[in-house]
Structures are given as structure tokens and as C-alpha cells.
């Protein structure tokens, strides 16, 4: 990360595009969003078909931690909390954080307010390889399924996300100078091709396979276990920890690629780091949760509107904001039509579309 900027640069607060009347520190934003996230986690853990009161939740945690000698709660509620509900909440926090910070970093890299992980092939590649695994599992992928068990589909999706992202990056270097614009165009082309193959595979699917494909594409946290949480956590935590170190370079990139390079930003290194980190986090998240849209698109806009355009706050805030949004969305999805479960991708799209349009309208109104 230290080689992204090769020489001293001026204070990014002097860049006109980053000036804002809001004087919010990173610490203040993290404290506020962290407090909201903690409240959302507690609310989500207590809400469900088997409600758990806040007092019972405290007793369950204290007893498990060894701070209480007597179990003053129902054993069933303890099992539901530790085995079903808490892994799901943790997975929602991790997936939301990865989608949020991935969308914010790619919007900064492409300098495009509607950019998200789909532009570099993460979502389309994961979907394509997951559908291939579903369709040809018994005939061609039997060994992989036996080795990976229930996580063969997640492994295939993560492999597809990494492969298509690598393909987009290599094509951008082969067809042009590897700049951000060329990468964006290559991403659009690869996404279109992957979408066409996905449509063909869907056409070939049986009714049972088509049902599985549809539900995977809609996204869900219903399969959350401690195994899936521990599998995703290293990738997401790596993305969330290292991505904020690139905030100063992204602030300089607001001026344009040539100006940022003149101020010492190593553009090749910056692109590699952002694409790699975004693919790690988002690819792992899509692999275990399926296609969940609008989180990486809407959340960065909310953070910019609330705290300003400085990427030091936008990146960290988008990770926390994404975790908040997805935790609440998952709580609603599993309680709104209980005992059934509404796919979380449907809910995020229904709520995200009008909210995103409102943000665009509000930004236009402020410019007038």
C-alpha cells in the first residue's frame, strides 16, 4: 500500500471537489455508525419467529461467557441464538460491509456515481460459475461437490468472480493503455458476454435447476453457519482493513488520472489494489449470499450526503453503513412474510431503487 503514492502530495482537503461544509472527523463518523450498527445487531438478534427479550439476550451471553452461574432463560432460545440467529447476523454484517466498501472504492476509482462491483465482472462471473455448478454438478463436477460438500457452489461462485475480474483487467491492458476508462468498457463487454452465457445456461436448465438458480440470484442469508462466517471473514476483514489506506490516492484521483499521476499517484498500483481488494470482499460475499443488489450502489451515496465526499470517511462509513443496511434488510426479509422468507435481493432492490432516485433528485436540487 505504501507504493501507491510515490512522492509527497498536497493536502487533499484543498481539492475543490472534496471541500464540504460538514466538519465530521473519521472518529466521529465511525463512533456514530458503529453505535447504530450495534443497535441493529441487537435488534436483529432479538427479532424472529422466537422472540428474545433484551434481558434474556444479556443472560444468554453472560452465561455463555461464564459471568453468570445460573441459566435464567429457556434452553431453546439459547440454541436459536447461538446456532441460527447470531451466525446469520454476523454474516449479514460481513456481507454488507464488503458490498458497501466495495461499491465506494469502485465509484472512487471509476469516478462514476453509479459504479458497483458489477462493472468489473464480480457479480456476473460469480453468477455464471454458480449456474454452471448447478447445471453440470452431477455429470462433470461430482468430484468438486464431494470435496467441497455444501460449499462447492460458494467455491465455484468465488472462482468465477475472481476469474472474470482478472479477465477484465487483462483485457484492459491488452486493448488499450489499461486506464480506468478502458477497464470500464472491458467490464461492460465481459458482463454482457457472461450475461448471455448465463441466459443460455438458464434456458437449458430443468425446472428444479431453474428454481435453484432463481433463488441463488435473488440472494439470501438463510444458509448462514459459523463455517460460512469463518470462511468469509478473512476476505472481508482484509478488504475493510486495507482499503482505507487508499483513501488519499482516491481523493487525488478526483482531479483525473493524469493530474493524480502528476501528484505522485501510481495509477497501475492503485487499480490493482482496489480491484483485488474489492474482488476479495465482494466475491466472497456473493459466493455465500448470492446476488444482493443496490447495497454497494446506494450506501456510498448516503455516506457522502451525510458526512461529505472525503474518501477517508466514505470508505469506512460505507463498510459500516452497508452492514447496517443489510442487517436491517435481512431482519425484515425473515419476519415480513413469516414463516416464509422473502429473498433479501428483492427487498434491497425494492427499497434501493426509489431511495437512489431520491438521492439523485436531491443532488440535482442542491445544484440549482
UniProtKB/TrEMBL annotation:
Question: One GO molecular-function annotation for this sequence?
Answer: transmembrane transporter activity
Q: Which domain of life is it from?
A: Bacteria
Protein name, entry field = Iron ABC transporter permease
Subcellular location per UniProt equals: Cell membrane
Q: Where are the transmembrane segments?
A: 29-54, 118-138, 150-169, 181-203, 215-243, 274-299, 311-330, 342-361
**InterPro entries referenced in this protein's UniProt entry, alphabetically:** ABC_BtuC-like (IPR037294), ABC_transptr_permease_BtuC (IPR000522)
GO CC annotation, single: plasma membrane
Its topology with respect to the membrane? Answer: Multi-pass membrane protein
Q: What keywords are assigned to this protein?
A: Cell membrane, Membrane, Transmembrane, Transmembrane helix, Transport
| A Gene Ontology BP annotation from the UniProt entry | siderophore-iron import into cell
Q: Does the keyword Transmembrane apply?
A: yes
Amino acid at each position: 500500500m505504501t507504493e501507491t503514492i510515490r512522492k509527497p502530495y498536497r493536502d487533499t482537503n484543498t481539492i475543490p471537489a472534496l471541500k464540504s461544509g460538514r466538519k465530521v472527523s473519521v472518529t466521529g463518523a465511525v463512533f456514530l455508525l458503529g453505535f447504530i450498527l450495534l443497535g441493529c445487531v441487537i435488534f436483529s438478534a432479538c427479532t424472529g419467529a422466537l422472540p428474545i427479550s433484551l434481558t434474556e439476550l444479556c443472560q444468554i451471553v453472560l452465561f455463555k461467557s461464564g459471568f453468570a452461574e445460573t441459566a435464567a432463560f429457556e434452553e431453546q432460545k439459547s440454541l436459536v441464538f447461538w446456532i441460527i440467529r447470531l451466525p446469520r447476523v454476523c454474516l449479514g454484517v460481513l456481507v454488507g460491509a464488503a458490498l458497501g466498501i466495495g461499491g465506494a472504492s469502485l465509484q472512487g476509482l471509476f469516478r462514476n456515481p453509479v459504479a458497483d462491483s458489477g462493472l468489473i465482472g464480480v457479480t456476473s462471473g460469480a453468477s455464471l460459475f454458480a449456474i454452471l455448478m448447478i447445471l453440470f454438478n452431477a455429470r462433470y463436477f461430482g468430484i468438486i461437490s464431494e470435496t467441497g460438500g455444501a460449499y462447492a457452489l460458494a467455491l465455484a461462485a468465488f472462482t468465477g468472480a475472481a476469474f472474470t475480474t482478472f479477465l477484465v483487467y487483462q483485457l484492459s491492458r491488452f486493448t488499450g493503455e489499461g486506464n480506468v476508462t478502458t477497464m470500464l468498457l472491458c467490464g461492460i463487454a465481459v458482463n454482457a458476454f457472461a450475461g448471455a452465457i448465463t441466459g443460455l445456461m438458464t434456458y437449458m436448465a430443468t425446472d428444479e435447476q431453474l428454481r435453484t438458480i432463481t433463488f441463488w440470484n435473488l440472494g439470501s442469508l438463510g444458509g448462514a453457519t459459523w463455517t460460512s462466517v469463518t470462511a468469509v471473514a478473512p476476505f472481508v476483514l482484509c478488504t475493510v482493513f486495507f482499503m482505507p489506506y487508499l483513501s488519499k490516492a482516491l481523493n487525488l484521483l478526483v482531479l483525473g488520472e493524469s493530474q493524480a499521476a502528476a501528484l505522485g499517484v501510481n495509477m497501475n498500483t492503485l487499480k490493482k489494489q482496489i480491484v483485488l481488494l474489492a474482488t476479495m470482499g465482494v466475491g466472497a460475499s456473493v459466493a455465500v449470499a448470492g446476488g444482493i443488489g443496490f447495497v454497494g450502489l446506494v450506501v456510498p451515496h448516503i455516506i457522502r450526503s451525510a458526512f461529505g465526499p472525503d474518501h477517508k470517511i466514505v470508505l469506512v462509513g460505507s463498510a459500516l453503513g452497508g452492514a447496517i443496511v443489510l442487517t436491517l434488510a435481512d431482519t425484515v426479509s425473515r419476519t415480513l412474510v413469516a414463516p416464509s422468507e422473502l429473498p433479501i435481493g428483492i427487498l434491497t432492490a425494492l427499497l434501493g431503487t426509489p431511495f437512489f432516485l431520491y438521492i439523485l433528485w436531491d443532488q440535482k436540487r442542491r445544484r440549482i
